[in-house]
Amino acid sequence: MHIMKLPIIKFFYLLILPMFCSVANATDMTMFGLTFGKEFNVSECKKILTANTTVYEASTDTVCFERGRVEESTLIINDYNKVQADSVYLKFPTFTEPQIMNGYRMYAVVVDKNLEGIVFDTEGITTSELVMENLRAKYNSPSLITPIQVSRGKSKIDAFRAEWHLKDLYVSFLNVNFAVDTGVVYILTDKGNRWYGEQMKRLEIL
């Protein structure tokens, strides 16, 4: 049985806790057709029964979500089967996933039944410029760009972290995560970021 693990970088967690700054214009609270701070109304992906267990269908025709567990969910749900509080997979139809995302799934942070953020992988160094172009087009120039070195074994990789401290969102792009071909983007509301941090502490990742 597959159990979802929250995407987090052990020693980078402290770097994603934001100090939100006021800006004159309202922040665009949409991304990839999703709206932050509003009810998470995405339907659960279709499931099929196999000889031994229940699994999600391999592909989907519409954006849907997958729980960490299919049969025994750890999610808190209400009578209408809406996600109330958890981090779930958002799954996109084949060939329709966002261009800057690596793979076809991202994580959605849901708190009090509202979508309070997303976290997704990128393709690392090779798409760094493309990701930055898209984030700049959406959120203007970053508030801060910090050069960093990521240690991988005996080698060190030159990388950077870009941050946008917006009125209603914190956006962070780490262009190198676990390897040169993997980066990560966090887009979180204040509420989502607090909840996400609490889960990391609960899981003793810090």
Can you walk through the features of this model?
With 206 residues, this protein is mostly beta strands. The protein has one domain. It is built from three helices and 13 strands; from the N terminus they run αβββββββββαββββα. It has helices spanning 13-16, 128-139, 190-202, and strands at 30-31, 34-35, 47-49, 54-56, 64-66, 76-77, 83-91, 105-111, 114-122, 144-152, 155-165, 170-179, 182-188. Strands 5, 6, 7, 8, 9, 10, 11, 12 and 13 form a nine-stranded antiparallel beta sheet that branches. Strands 1-2 form a two-stranded antiparallel sheet. A two-stranded antiparallel sheet has the order 3-4. Strand 10 and strand 11 (155-165) form a beta hairpin. It starts with 12 loop residues before the first helix and ends with a helix. Mean pLDDT is 80; it is low at 1-6, 8-24 and 70-82.
Keywords:
3 helices; 206 residues; mainly beta; 9-stranded antiparallel sheet
Summarize the structure.
Helices cover 14% and strands 37% of the residues. With 206 residues, the protein is mostly beta strands.
Number of domains: 1
Low confidence ranges:
1-6, 8-24, 70-82
Q: Compute the gyration radius: what is it? A: 17 Å
Going by helix content, strand content and strand pairing, the class is mainly beta
Strand content: 35-45%
Topology overview:
Blueprint: H1 13-16, E1 30-31, E2 34-35, E3 47-49, E4 54-56, E5 64-66, E6 76-77, E7 83-91, E8 105-111, E9 114-122, H2 128-139, E10 144-152, E11 155-165, E12 170-179, E13 182-188, H3 190-202
Antiparallel strand pairs: 1-2, 3-4, 5-7, 6-7, 7-8, 8-9, 9-13, 10-11, 11-12, 12-13
